[in-house]
Amino acid sequence: xxxxxxxxxxxxxxxxxxxxxxxxxxxxxxxxxxxxxxxxxxxxxxxxxxxxxxxxxxxxxxxxxxxxxxxxxxxxxxxxxxxxxxxxxxxxxxxxxxxxxxxxxxxxxxxxxxxxxxxxxxxxxxxxxxxxxxxxxxxxxxxxxxxxxxxxxxxxxxxxxxxxxxxxxxxxxxxxxxxxxxxxxxxxxxxxxxxxxxxxxxxxxxxxxxxxxxxxxxxxxxxxxxxxxxxxxxxxxxxxxxxxxxxxxxxxxxxxxxxxxxxxxxxxxxxxxxxxxxxxxxxxxxxxxxxxxxxxxxxxxxxxxxxxxxxxxxxxxxxxxxxxxxxxxxxxxxx
Length: 335
Fold this sequence. Notes:
Low-confidence stretches: 65-84, 306-324, 327-335
Strand order of the largest sheet: 3-2-1-5-4
Number of strands: 12
Strand content: 5-15%
Shape: elongated
């Protein structure tokens, strides 16, 4: 058994770590538990009824539905039952217990018994197919992992579809996204997702990736210029304020405005652009959509990928320790 015993960032960071370790659990034929996903468990039918947020669908004793459609048949997230849903305080308590207990045992040098603790430092990377990880899983004891960069791109690629099935959205979110995408794609050839990241990016790295509406409008015009003869429309998702007037010469649709619906809407586009963020990088992985990360204000767009198929390849390396905060609704206003 593998247990993720530390929280890292917010939704995008946690999804990416979860996905890589699901791939590892499938490879070694063991169960994975992720109590540190509790904050977001209610957003996914596969995790909302399980305080441990476990992945064991590949095992004969699986506790979760094996069929992706069955996973959407769980009770509504508002329903709390004594044997199914756990309160937020209970989830937070289990997260903290796992994290503190693991750290305490590690510092006390109890790193091999009663559990095997696999802890990597910030910036360090551990390959799930490497000797260190393989020996830990092969010890026969539960493996408590702490660290963000457990990575193997080929393993993730191999197990992508079961991972996608596990993270199917709630039916309400899925249906809302379907309606939005149908409307956005009406009379357009290419739908481009634009992630206008605000919120915490005003402070992160001194505001390096906090771009203006004019910056985004310029990039969107570059996309249009590089796709002559194609009718391009943009899906703008933001967690802050935008001036609608800045985009008046462009054809665009605003995203739904919620964290989950924006995420899955971006995953349904043909090309994604936005600042470096694990949020858009998960959308890129989930939807198999090409992503251009705009890592500085003068970055240039290469929209050629928008006219081709996008076979899944190694997802871009996520930005570590960046939160993905979202307002409950987007705030968009005209000047």
